[in-house]
Amino acid sequence: MTERRQANKRLIPQPPAQATDRREAQRTPVQIKVRIATINSFQHIGDGAVLDLSESGCKICSALVLPMGSFWDLYLTIPETSDPVLILKVRVVWAVENEYGIEFLLITARERTRLRHFIWKRMNRSALRDAPPLFTLVDHSSSRRPRLKSLP
Predict the structure, then answer these.
(1) Is residue 15 within 8 Å of residue 7, measured between CB atoms?
(2) Which helix (H) or strand (E) is 131 found in, with range?
(3) Residue ranges of the alpha helices (H) in the chain?
(4) How far apart are CA 17 and CA 35, in angstroms?
(5) Whether the Cβ atoms of residue 32 and residue 81 lie closer than 8 Å to each other
(6) b/e string for 112-131 if b means 16 or more Cβ within 10 A?
């Protein structure tokens, strides 16, 4: 999708504005299947593929038209498990052609834990190299105040 502007009576294609990454959690690239269902009725309406995934959302590719601001349920097919991870309520926050930014709004603690384990198994150091520390250790070895130590 490109914007066009008129210059000397000629249309010049303009690339779309660069999207700002507003994710709250670290994303990891994946290739897993997703089933899309109507919210609260579990009626399957389409399929797609998850292209990247975080604890707070994902990017999916689907031939199904998902309007911005619409709400859905998602079933993520995790390869190591027989049961899909159910995200009870998601919102479409951006759409470009057949790719969609999805925000997870309602997920049970059990499903979030399953999702977290799947994501952590796929993260590698290169993906985390320029990211903030994932966690910090508190050093109590000194008699002075505890110090925080970030892991590389």
Answers:
(1) no
(2) none
(3) 109-122, 125-128
(4) 30
(5) no
(6) eebbeebbeeeeeeeeeeee
Strand partners, 45: none
Rounded Cα distance, 66 and 57, in Å? 15
| φ, ψ at 41 (rounded to 5°) | -115, -10
C-alpha distances in Å from residue 25, one per residue of 8, 107, 122: 46, 15, 14
The H or E element containing residue 143 is none
The pair phi, psi for residue 16, each rounded to 5°, is -65, 150
pTM strictly above 0.85: no
**CA-based end-to-end distance of the chain:** 40
Question: With helix as H, strand as E and coil as C, how does 48-74 read?
Answer: EEEEEECCCEEEEECCCCCCCCCEEEE
Q: Note the pLDDT tens digit of each residue in 114-127.
A: 998 888 888 764 45
Summarised one tens digit per residue, pLDDT across range 48-87 is: 999 999 999 999 999 999 999 999 999 999 887 789 999 9
Pairing of strands 99-106, 44-53: unpaired
